[in-house]
Structure formats: structure tokens, C-alpha cells
Write a structure and sequence with these properties.
Length: 173
């Protein structure tokens, strides 16, 4: 099904749901191990590496799960007619269904959609000391300011920034 395949794509490559829906077979450049397309939101072309786990997940989906269809889109509906997802298709619902089926407990107030995987990727890259401009480029943002909202700093990093008030006051004057 779509959800088990789509999850590695935004989680590892930071793709927006609309770009996953619009991904065509011709965008998969197996000879170069890349995924190449024009981003829907920014209209900028992007070339992403075909990460090994993502590549194998796509191959598995195409061989074993994708309905037989002439559709040029990688991901298609699994109910007839087997065609591209519509503009308002709720991929988030598919993902949430599989999260629950897997027994993963997520608090109600925590976002669970495909977009939340972009947040996770940004935070993971930050934890790995990836520079902010690189994270911004991976997410396809036109400005690093757009990336700020995606970054969730953990307590460990906050402690690195914290000042010791006694030390500050001891050095005053």
C-alpha cells in the first residue's frame, strides 16, 4: 500500500505530499540513482539522491503492491480506477491508518501526517549538525527563514546554550 512506501520518502528526503502524489515514473532516474522533478510549491527543479532504502521500497511497491495500470504516476489509488491521486486526496489518513495498525501510540496533540515527517527529518538533520542552509535546501525552502518552524531543538542542545546566572553575575563589574 502507499503508506508503507510513502513514509520513507518524506522521512528520508523531505518531500511534500503534493510532490509525492505528482511523482512520475520518468522522475526516477535509476541509471543515476536520483529522483528528479520540479517542486510543486516552489516551481524549482530538484535532484535528490535515490537512497538505498527508498529505492528498494519503491521497487518493492512497483513490483508487489502497485495495481496494474498505465498511469505515468508512481503512486496510484488502490481502488478502481487505478489512477493518480486527486488534488484533495488525503494521504495523511492513509499514513495515520497504518501508524495505528502498527500499534504506534501517538498523543492526539502530536501531528501525524506526512508533513510531520518533514519536521522529523529537519530535527534529525539538525541533531546530526547539518548546517541550516543545507536543511533548508533539502526541504526545498526558498529561504532559511522558512525552515525555522521545522526545527525542534532538544533539551540537550538548549542546555548547551544556557547561561549560568551565578557565573554571569560574578563577572559583572
Amino acid at each position: 500500500m502507499l503508506s508503507w512506501l510513502a513514509t520513507p520518502v518524506p522521512a528520508r528526503l523531505g518531500l511534500r505530499a503534493v510532490d509525492i502524489k505528482d511523482l512520475r515514473l520518468e522522475n526516477l532516474k535509476w541509471d543515476k540513482n536520483t529522483i528528479e522533478f520540479v517542486q510543486s510549491k516552489t516551481k524549482k527543479p530538484i535532484v535528490l539522491p535515490m537512497l538505498e532504502d527508498v529505492g528498494w521500497a519503491i521497487i518493492d511497491y512497483l513490483k508487489n503492491a502497485r495495481p496494474v495500470t498505465d498511469s505515468p504516476f508512481v503512486f496510484v489509488r488502490h481502488n478502481a480506477p487505478f489512477e493518480a491521486f486527486g488534488i484533495n486526496a488525503a494521504l495523511n489518513r492513509i499514513l495515520v491508518t497504518h501508524i495505528r495498525r502498527a500499534g504506534v501510540k501517538v498523543p492526539r496533540d502530536v501531528p501525524k501526517g506526512l508533513h510531520s515527517l518533514r519536521h522529523t527529518l529537519a530535527s534529525t538533520l539538525l541533531e546530526q549538525n547539518t548546517p541550516l542552509p543545507v536543511i533548508s535546501e533539502i526541504l526545498g525552502h526558498m529561504s532559511v527563514n522558512s525552515t525555522d518552524v521545522y526545527l525542534h531543538i532538544d533539551i540537550k542542545r538548549l542546555r548547551q546554550c544556557a547561561l549560568d546566572p551565578e557565573e554571569v553575575f560574578d563577572n559583572v563589574g
